[in-house]
Automatic annotation (TrEMBL), chain A:
The keyword Nucleotidyltransferase does not apply. Keywords: FAD, Flavoprotein, Oxidoreductase. Transmembrane segments: none annotated. The keyword Oxidoreductase applies. One of its GO terms (molecular function) is oxidoreductase activity. This is Xanthine dehydrogenase family protein subunit M. It holds the Pfam family FAD_binding_5. InterPro entries: CO_DH_flav_C (IPR005107), CO_DH_flav_C_dom_sf (IPR036683), Diverse_Substr_Oxidored (IPR051312), FAD-bd_PCMH (IPR016166), FAD-bd_PCMH-like_sf (IPR036318), FAD-bd_PCMH_sub1 (IPR016167), FAD-bd_PCMH_sub2 (IPR016169), Mopterin_DH_FAD-bd (IPR002346). Residues 1-170 form the FAD-binding PCMH-type domain.
TrEMBL record, chain B:
One of its GO terms (molecular function) is metal ion binding. The keyword Glycoprotein does not apply. Signal peptide: none annotated. The lineage of its organism: Bacteria, Pseudomonadati, Pseudomonadota, Alphaproteobacteria, Acetobacterales. This is (2Fe-2S)-binding protein.
Length: 265, 168
C-alpha cells in the first residue's frame, strides 16, 4: 500500500472541507472495499479521511412511516436492529447475508451505497424500496442515485450521510451466491410499498443493479411467484464471465425473483 | 509520523506508525504478538481475526490509526495469567480441531465472538455459517464445529466442564 496522510474529522462539515480541498483524498468508513483496493495499489489517494469519528452518522431510527439509517451504521447493526427487523425484515436478513461476520462488523451501509458495486446487496434493496439517499448537501432518490456499475450521482467529495427508507407493505430478497467468492451472482429484491411494486436486480446485470419493469408490471397485476415465473430475462442485459454465462444469469434472475416473492409472503 | 494509542490484551500502548500500517502489522511487528497470523492478506481467510471492542474483525483490513482508543484482544490475551486456557482453546485441543494450526488463532477468535452473539446456544448450521469468514485447509471443519459447540456449553454454563470428545 502506498502511504497517505490520515485525517479524522469529527463533523461532516470538516470532512467535506478536507475532501473539497484535496481531490485526491478518499473517505473511509468501514474500509471493506477501499482497503483491499489500496493494498492492491489500485488506488493512490494523497489522504484518507476517516469518517468514524462523526458520531451523528451512526444508528437506526423509525421516523413515522420511514426507517432512517445513518451512513456509518454497520451491516451487523442493520441486521440486528429491532426497528429494521420489525419494519423491513427482508432488509435485516439481507444485511445478515453480506460478506462474513467480520465484514459485517466493519462495513457500513453508506460505504456500500456510495461504492455501488454491481454485486453489492444494498443498491437493489434501496431501488426496490424506493429509498432516498441523503448527502451532506441534498437528497437524491435511489432511482437517480444509482447510475450503473460503480457509478452514482455523488459529486466529488460529496458524502452519503443517511438513507431514508419508506416502510413497505411487503418485501423479500433472494440471491444466488458465487460458491467461491460468496458475492451475488444474481439477486432480486421485491417490494410492495407506497411507491407501488418495485423489483431490482443485483449481481447479474451488465451495468450494475437495475429495476426490472416487466417483473414490476407482472407483480403489480398479480403478487405471486407464478406471476414472474414465465418472464424471460434478456441475456444481452446480463454479465457473463467464468462463473456463469449471460444466459445462466438471465435464468437465475427469474428463479431469484420467484424466491424473493415467496420470501416476501 | 502518526501516533496511535490503543489497549491490547489489557495493556495500553502508544506506538508511532505510518498511516498505511495495518493493525496486524502493528500487532506482529511492533508489539511482537505473532499469534495473529497473516494468511491471504486479502480479507478472505480469517487467520488474522482479533476482537476490537468485543467484535471479531480482520486485522489485515483495518489501519492501525483507525484503532485509536480501541480495546483489542488477540489470541495471546485469552488464557488466564496462570496459563489456564480459555474454554474455546481447551475445546479446540480436546476435539483435535486443528492439524497444522495456522488458521487456529483466527478460528478461536471468530468462534468466541460467535458464541457471545448467541447467548441461547448455537445449532450446527449456525456454527458452520458463522465460520464463513475463516478458512481451514486441513481439518475439514468437522472437529472445529464440534469444539465450538462443546465450548459454547461451558462458556454459557450449560455444562460445568468440557464434555470430553468421544473416542473414535
Amino acid at each position: 500500500m502506498y502511504d497517505f496522510e490520515y485525517h479524522k474529522p469529527s463533523s461532516v462539515a470538516d470532512a467535506v472541507k478536507i475532501l473539497a480541498a484535496d481531490p485526491d483524498a478518499r473517505a473511509i468508513s468501514g474500509g471493506m472495499t477501499l482497503l483491499p483496493a489500496l493494498k492492491l495499489r489500485l488506488n493512490k489517494p494523497t489522504a484518507v479521511v476517516d469518517l468514524s469519528g462523526i458520531a451523528d452518522l451512526r444508528g437506526v431510527k423509525r421516523d413515522g412511516n420511514k426507517i432512517v439509517i445513518g451512513a456509518l451504521t454497520k451491516h451487523y447493526e442493520v441486521a440486528t436492529s429491532a426497528e429494521v427487523k420489525a419494519a423491513i425484515p427482508a432488509l435485516a436478513a439481507m444485511a445478515a447475508s453480506i460478506g462474513d461476520t467480520q465484514v459485517r462488523n466493519r462495513g457500513t451501509m453508506g460505504g456500500s451505497v456510495a461504492n455501488n458495486d454491481p454485486s453489492a446487496d444494498y443498491p437493489a434493496a434501496l431501488l426496490a424500496l424506493g429509498a432516498t439517499i441523503q448527502t451532506d448537501r441534498r437528497t437524491i432518490s435511489a432511482d437517480d442515485f444509482f447510475q450503473g456499475m460503480f457509478a452514482t450521482a455523488l459529486e466529488a467529495g460529496e458524502l452519503v450521510t443517511a438513507i431514508h427508507i419508506p416502510v413497505p407493505e411487503k418485501a423479500g430478497y433472494a440471491k444466488m451466491r458465487n460458491p467461491a467468492s460468496r458475492y451475488s451472482m444474481a439477486g432480486v429484491f421485491v417490494a410492495k410499498g407506497p411507491a407501488g411494486v418495485r423489483v431490482a436486480v443485483n449481481g447479474a446485470g451488465n451495468n450494475g443493479s437495475y429495476r426490472h419493469a416487466g417483473m414490476e408490471a407482472a407483480l403489480s397485476a398479480n403478487w405471486s411467484a407464478d406471476a414472474v415465473a414465465g418472464i424471460k430475462v434478456d441475456p444481452s442485459d446480463m454479465n457473463g464471465d467464468i462463473h456463469g454465462s449471460a444466459e445462466y444469469r438471465a435464468h437465475l434472475v427469474t428463479v431469484m425473483a420467484k424466491r424473493a416473492v415467496t420470501n416476501a409472503g | 509520523m502518526p501516533q496511535v494509542s490503543l489497549t491490547v490484551n489489557g495493556t495500553k500502548h502508544t506506538v508511532e506508525v505510518e498511516a498505511r500500517t495495518l493493525l496486524v502489522e502493528l500487532l506482529r511487528e511492533k508489539l511482537r504478538l505473532t499469534g495473529t497470523h497473516v494468511g491471504c492478506d486479502t480479507s478472505q481467510c480469517g487467520a488474522c481475526v482479533v476482537h476490537m471492542g468485543g467484535d471479531s474483525i480482520k486485522s489485515c483490513t483495518i489501519l492501525a490509526v483507525q484503532c485509536e482508543g480501541a480495546s483489542v484482544t488477540t489470541i495471546e490475551g485469552l488464557a488466564a495469567a496462570d496459563g489456564t486456557l480459555h474454554p474455546m482453546q481447551e475445546a479446540f485441543r480436546e476435539y483435535h480441531a486443528l492439524q497444522c494450526g495456522f488458521c487456529t488463532p483466527g478460528m478461536v477468535m471468530s468462534a468466541i465472538d460467535l458464541v457471545n452473539k448467541h447467548p441461547d446456544g448455537l445449532s450446527e448450521k449456525e456454527i458452520r455459517e458463522g465460520l464463513e469468514g475463516n478458512l481451514c485447509r486441513c481439518t475439514g471443519y468437522h472437529n472445529i464445529v464440534k469444539a465450538i459447540a462443546a465450548a459454547s456449553d461451558v462458556m454459557q454454563g450449560r455444562t460445568a466442564e468440557l464434555t470430553p470428545a468421544a473416542a473414535e
